[in-house]
Amino acid sequence: MLKRTRLLWKQQKYDQLVTANREAVKAYNQRMLPSLLLIGWVLMLLPIAAVPFSNTKAAALPAYLSALAAFLGLYSLSRFKRFQAATLQGLYAAFSVLFLLGIYLSVYHSPNMRATVLLAGFILMPLSFIDQPRRVSAYLIFWLLLHTLLAAYLKPRYALDDAINCLCAGVLGSFIGRLVNQTRLELYDAQRQLTIEKSTDVLTGLYNRRKLYEHLKSMGDQITDRPSGILMTDVDHFKYINDSLGHKAGDDCLRAIGRVMQRYNQTYHLRFYRYGGDEFIALLYGYSRADLLSIAGELQQDIKNANLSDSRVTLSIGVAFSSQTSADGFEQLMIQADQAVYVAKDIGRDQIKSAWEI
Q1: What whole-number percentage of the chain has pLDDT above 90?
Q2: Whole-angstrom Cα distance, residue 100 to residue 90?
Q3: 135, 217, 275, 349: which could form a disulfide with 281 (CB 3.0–4.6 Å)?
Q4: CB atoms within 10 A of CB 236
C-alpha cells in the first residue's frame, strides 16, 4: 500500500511539473518534431540508395519510399503554425510511421529473422519528447501487442523472441525516458521559479517594478494590446501604520492590498505591479476615461471595506489616459499619473484625481 502511494505521489509530481511548465514543454516538443522528421527521412535515403546493390532492399523499396514520403509530408507540415499547435500528434504520427515500417520489415519482409528496427523504436520513442507517461506507455503497448499478434500468426518461429525483446526494449526505454524527462522538467521548473522570483514581489505576489519596465520595453513597435490607461495608487498614512502598529502590521497591510489587487487582475483587463514601498501601479487595456475612473472608485471602496489593519486604510489614486498606439511616451504617462496622486494627497487624501483634470 505504501509503495503504491509513493508511486501515485511520484506520478502526481510528474503531472504537476508537466502542467506548470506547459510552455517550456511545448517549446521543446516543437523543436524536436522537425529534427526527428528530418532524421527520419534522411535515414530512409540510406536503404533506398542501397537498392541497386541489394535484392532484399529492392523488395522493400515500396515500404521505404512510403515511409520517406510520410516523413517528408510531416516535415513540410511542421513548418506551418497551425500544425505546430498539434505538435504531440505530429510526434506520435512520426513514430507511427517508424513502427509501421518496423512491423512490415519484421513480419512481412523478413519473417525468418528476428525484429531489429522495432527495438530502436521502443527505446528511442520515450526519450524523444515529453508527454504524460500513461499516454506514452499506452502507445507503446499498442504497437507491442500489434506486432506480437501479427508475429504469432505470420512468423511463429520467432514470435516469442520478438515479443520478449520488444518488451524489454519498451520497458528500458520507458524507464530511461521517464528519468531523462523528469530531469528536463525539473530544470524547466527551476528556470520558471527563478523567472518568477526575478519578476514577482515577494510580499504581495504582484509583479514588481522590474517586470513593469520589461513589459513596457517589450511592447516595442507593436500596435495591438496597448494600455489605454494607468492607475497609480499610494496608501494614505502608511508611515503611521508602520510606526504605530509595527512593520509586521505594515507588511500584513500590503499583503492584503496585494490580494485585493490580484482579484482585480482576474476580474478586469489590467495588471497591477508593486511600484515601490506602498505605491502600486496598474496598466489597463481597452477602457475609456469613464471606465478608468469607475474602476479606480471601485478599488478605493474595496480597500476601505477590507480588514487590512487595526486602522482604516485608504488610497489616493492618480489616473492617466492614453489613446496612443506607440510604446513611446508611456513612461511620461506614468509621470502624469504619479503627479495626479500627489494632487489627490494634497487635497485631503482618500481621493481620485485624473491627469487630464490638472
Answers
A1: 59
A2: 15
A3: 275
A4: 21
CATH of 209-357 among 3.30.43.10, 3.40.50.720, 3.40.50.970, 3.30.70.270: 3.30.70.270
Using an 8 Å Cβ cutoff, are 236 and 350 in contact? yes
Cell 506520478 belongs to which residue? 11
Confidence of residue 227 (pLDDT cuts 50, 70, 90): confident
DSSP secondary structure of 23-49: HHHHHHHHHHHHHHHHHHHHHHHHHHH
Q: Where are the domains of the chain?
A: 2-198, 209-357
Give 64-100 pLDDT, tens digit per residue: 999 999 999 999 888 887 777 889 999 999 999 999 9
pTM of the model: 0.70
Give the CB-side neighbour count of residue 317, counting CA atoms within 13 A: 22
Give the single-character DSSP code of 321.
Answer: E
Which residues are CB-neighbours of 249 under 8 A, at least 6 positions away? Answer: 241, 242, 309, 310
Closest CA to 119 of 171, 175, 166: 166
- Which secondary structure element, helix H or strand E, spans residue 232, and what is its range? strand 229-235
Place of cell 528496427: 117
Kindly report the three-state secondary structure assignment for every residue of 268-294: CCEEEEEEECCEEEEEECCCCHHHHHH
Residue 242: Cβ within 10 Å count: 16
What the block records as the C-alpha cell of 110 is: 523478413
